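Hi Q.,

Before the meeting this afternoon, I wanted you to have the magnesium ion prediction in hand. No need to reply - just skim if you have a minute. The sequence and ligand are here:
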Amino acid sequence: MRIVQKFGGTSVGSIERIQATAKIIKGELEQGNEIAVVVSAMSGETNRLLHLANNINDNPPMREVDALVATGEQVTAALLAIELDALGVSAYSFSGAQAGFKTEGCHTKARIKDVQGDHLIKHMERGEVPVVTGFQGVDAKGDVTTLGRGGSDTSAVALAIAVKADSCDIYTDVDGIYTTDPRIEPNARKMDSISYEEMLEFASLGAKVLQTRSVELGMRYNMPIHLRSSFDLVEGTRVSKEDSNMERAEISGVAHNRDEAKVTIKGIPDQPGIAAAVFGPVAAADINVDVIVQNISEDGQTDLTFTVPRNDYQATMDLLNTLCTKMNAREVTGDNTVAKISIIGVGMRSHTGVAKKMFDVLAQENINIQMITTSEIKVTVVLEEKYIEVAVRALHQAFNLAQD
Ligand code: ASP
Ligand code: MG
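Predicted structure with the ligand bound:
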């Protein structure tokens, strides 16, 4: 097999961890696999470098920020190649530019345009291990760019596609994706496999194990991703294309997010353009809106309720209060003690009554649902934060997700 292995910050966070990582790589080589590696910076290093820049200048030039933070990955790539050499493995470190990562010029959040994998394939075919810096590339001017926080996941998937790997193995400090948060429900079960779409839904709800873009890229090119732990070499969770032959459970998991707040603008004159008039300024303020509900209008007036990240609550309230006066609306109310809970699963496509079952379970627990939204493979409700744990456990049990 040809495998791209990616090691995150905790897997290269110290000399001991780099040594353990080198052993994992050597082990895979000895199984007869061809290997290329992508590394993150040591854990905490990217933050440390950003602090240094901000200590000197509140508004450092983005080109220089990229030149600075890209060094974190260069350190770990070289150290890992040095350690592999000590174990008798031929290894060569490559910066993003050397590896052939071409990006757009947008510093600190560049997108990958192209990766040239041919020269790396030659090394791999000779049994040598290219160790490539994640998170970085080079733009058309030859300047170093970075891909946004967590970007080395995306580097790894892009490299796997470029070298035509059979799998992209992402090593981290958790051993997979669970049916729900094990800190709330101890009977949560690690999932063996999950579809790209499900992984995207889990990620959008705070399962921050993989950068979302890496999953989107994997999905576009059908690159299997194996999410696993470098601390415990058990099978992790495999993220791949939905297997249509598989018998699916009603849902795959229950996700939640406490980082939510709810705002309502009441009594807005109901006329064309009001949603645009509200959400335009909200978007311009860089506030991410999630669940939206607009009430049926009464006497020519309507209410609009939506959720935002809790951090943006005050800014959103201020903005809506200004809009309220401008638009001649009645009042603005808000609540920053709400949370969101979702049931997720491709099984919803073939089972009926899944949403109803969720509502029944919450009703039995006497939990009031404040807002509801659905997609093809997800049902989300907004509720009072204090009910989150009860709701997670009740749903996990009702949908039979526990360990067998
Ligand atoms: N080192 C970068 C970060 O901390 C990229 C990564 O680790 O994925 O965001
Ligand atoms: Mg990461």
